[in-house]
Amino acid sequence: MKITLISVGKLKEKYLREGIAEYSKRLSRYCSLEMIEVSDEKCPESLSDADKEIIKNKEGDRITSKLKEGTYLITLEIEGKELSSEKLASRIEKVTTGGNSHLTFLIGGSLGLSDNLKRRTDFALSFSKLTFPHQMMKLILLEQIYRSFRIIRNEPYHK
User: Fold this and answer.
1) Could you report the per-residue pLDDT of 129-154, keeping only the tens digit for each?
2) pLDDT value at position 133?
3) According to the annotation, is 142 in a ligand binding site?
4) pLDDT for the residue 99
5) What pTM did the predictor assign?
6) Domains of the chain in sequence order
7) d(Cα 118, Cα 139) in Å, to the nearest integer?
8) Where on this chain does S-adenosyl-L-methionine bind (predicted)?
9) Is pLDDT at 158 greater than 80 in this prediction?
10) 85 is in an annotated binding site
11) pLDDT by residue (tens digit) across 95-129?
12) 91 near 38, Cβ under 8 Å?
């Protein structure tokens, strides 16, 4: 199984890089993990709605250029469906047993994802109605993917 994680923006914080490295190592026994970062656009504080859309579309074009054909696409969106860890594991298992061995997760920039990417998604996932820094979401997502594999294989993991 292959999992690709595409995110907007470079990860700078050492503590997040260390956590991501740890979960990447843990995931290596369950899947092939590829992480792709695309550059973000500078966002001044006062942007018009039209300017926000332009920025999301530019970032969306960069993401789209990295997407592979035939992958099952899961976007992280505040408006997406909230799942428990068990339900996320079930969805991952269902996708993979349904014949798709490549999952791609998308984490947008500070303004979110473009409408084109939202329309293209196979599943919109929300971790919460709260807003998290997208760099932190990468770590949280990897932990939940790891937890999903442990659940799927009935392996112990703290609750």
Assistant:
1) 888 888 899 999 999 999 999 999 99
2) 84
3) no
4) 85
5) 0.93
6) 2-152 (3.40.1280.10)
7) 22
8) 76, 108, 127-132
9) no
10) no
11) 988 888 999 999 999 899 999 999 999 999 999 98
12) no
Query: Is 5 annotated as contributing to ligand binding?
Result: no
CB 131 within 8 A of CB 137: no
Segments in the chain forming alpha helices (H)? 14-27, 49-64, 85-97, 115-120, 134-152
**108 labeled part of a ligand binding site:** yes
Contact in structure between 105 and 6 (CB atoms under 8 Å): yes
130 is in an annotated binding site: yes
Q: Please say whether the beta carbons of 6 and 108 come within 8 A.
A: no
What 8-state DSSP symbol labels residue 154?
Answer: T
Tokens of 156: 């112990």
**131 assigned binding-site residue:** yes
Please check whether residue 61 is in contact with residue 33, taking contact to mean a CB–CB distance below 8 angstroms.
Answer: no
**C-alpha dist (Å) from residue 29 to 33, 59, 146:** 10, 32, 10
